[in-house]
Amino acid sequence: MGNAELDIEDLMTFVEVADAGGVSAAARRLGVSKSIVSRRLFRLEAELGVQLLARTTRGAALTEAGVTFRDHAARVSAEIDVARETILPAGDLRGRLRVAVPLTFGPTHFAHVLADMARRHPKLHIHTSYSDRFVDLIAEGFDCAIRVGYLPDSNLIASRIGPIYGKLVASPDYIKAHGSPETPDELVAHQALMQGTETWQFMDGDKILTVRPQGRFKADNGTALVAAAAAGLGIAWVPDGITREYLASGALVPVMPRYPPPPAGVYVIRPPGQHPSRKVRILTELLLECFEEDPRRA
């Protein structure tokens, strides 16, 4: 390699291409043009004197050398990120933060926190993806995700921000036609409006009761489930933040209040690794502040 000098930007770009599975996807993640990504890759391969990527019709596959080099490049990139953050003036953030946020709560509950973070840190690029599906943080290159609900076991690292309270609701028309269940056992005879094939839990004093409800209407979005409940399609279990106005107007009424669901939570999730980046730490702190100021906002 002689006196070849590896450019850190080229290294980081290569890691993005390797993880994203192609130049186009990496360019989207990085917020630059495809030609810039291609130029950086070409420069890196020229410096190393080896081919790192085999271009295919479906994107780019790592060569054997590319697979080996990717791990080293990722480690170096992470170290440089940490070093950059360490020497920055206290609190000054730069670079990119990619966050996955739920669509049901994100725009109303979390968007203002991300906007505030961008305002406080003018050199920081924040890219937010709003979706109620569970994104694969590692495969899709996210630094962290905000999640609402009950956390399944995983190898991801979670910081709890605060509780989320919810209840069962139905429209007065549904209850007039089908009655109102008094106990969790009676719930299985009703139409449940669900996200998928989930089980529902309820508190009976200190005991937790688990029910597997049935229903023909499913949606991966809480706002859609509330609309279906208001239309008289069945009983929905949704967070208070999106039913408040419906309950106030009488469009929905609480169901089975003697057996409340256990509180869910708001979490910041990040991939396993050394330490959380300062960007993720500061976002977590801002969310905690927001919840402490108004714990019932969710």
Describe this structure in words.
It is a single chain. This protein is α/β, with parallel strands linked by helices and 298 residues long. The protein has three domains: 8-87, Arc Repressor Mutant, subunit A, CATH 1.10.10.10; 95-164 and 265-293, D-Maltodextrin-Binding Protein, domain 2, CATH 3.40.190.10; 166-260, D-Maltodextrin-Binding Protein, domain 2 (3-Layer(aba) Sandwich). The protein contains eleven helices and 14 strands. It has helices spanning 8-20, 23-30, 34-48, 64-87, 106-120, 137-140, 172-178, 184-187, 222-230, 244-249, 278-293; strands at 53-56, 59-62, 95-101, 124-130, 144-149, 157-164, 166-170, 191-194, 200-204, 207-211, 214-218, 235-239, 253-255, 264-270. The strands form four sheets. A five-stranded mixed sheet has the order 4-3-5-14-6, with helices on one face. Helix 5 links the parallel strand 3 (95-101) and strand 4. Helix 1 crosses helix 4 (64-87), helix 2 packs across helix 3 (34-48) and helix 5 packs across helix 11 (278-293). The relative contact order is 0.14.
Helicity, as a percent range:
40-55%
Mean pLDDT: 86
Q: Which architecture of the largest domain does the CATH hierarchy give at level 2? A: 3-Layer(aba) Sandwich
Uncertain spans: none
> Count the strands?
14
CATH superfamily of the largest domain: Periplasmic binding protein-like II
Q: Determine the CATH topology of the largest domain.
A: D-Maltodextrin-Binding Protein, domain 2
Query: What's the order of the H and E elements?
Result: HHHEEHEHEHEEEHHEEEEHEHEEH
Beta-strand content estimate: 25-35%
> Biggest β-sheet, characterized?
5 strands, mixed
Write down the overall geometry: elongated
Radius of gyration: 24 Å
Number of structural domains: 3
